[in-house]
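Next comes one such specimen:
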Amino acid sequence: MTLSTLHQKIVLVLNRHWLPISTVSPADAFCHMVAGTADAIRISANSMATLKWDAWRSLPAEDSRSIGTKNGRVLVPTVIVLNRYDGLPMCRPSFGFRALWARDGGRCQYSGRRLAIHEADIDHIMPRSRGGGDSWENCVISDRTINRRKGAKTPSEAKLRLIRNPTVPRPVPVTHTIENTYNINDWKHFIMK
């Protein structure tokens, strides 16, 4: 592992009920383990076992998934489990095209037509040129041709009606937002995407 990898979020964090709640860097994972707030999970073909820091650091460490320390190489865990925390944090999706697409179900909010992603635009109900901002309540997914025709008008001026009023999405468990962007095999036991 390189020094930069030591600070990438490549360790999955589970609460004490083994539900994924975040990702941390190996450096942060080691801090949790040394402090005794988390144990590493050793995952093999047929089993999973939690190991405290002393047991973990005595495991054989292959070069590709280990880091060097003054006392020798230490295996970097792929998953840790917190010993006491049992919460399940909630979060809202970050505002942007993908989140609006998900909220609106990929449908034009004026025609109701299901769109291909390349056919869609973000429409500002109250145009930005007239003081409308980027917000959940002022933005919808729209067919590009309808959005161009609407231009800097309000929906009523353009003789359009929204099929539903836009709202701020409800918070979802953070478990639904964690992605395995590094394609770490061990995470597939805990993340379904």
Q: What stands out?
A: The radius of gyration is 23 Å. Residues 5-89+173-189 form one domain.
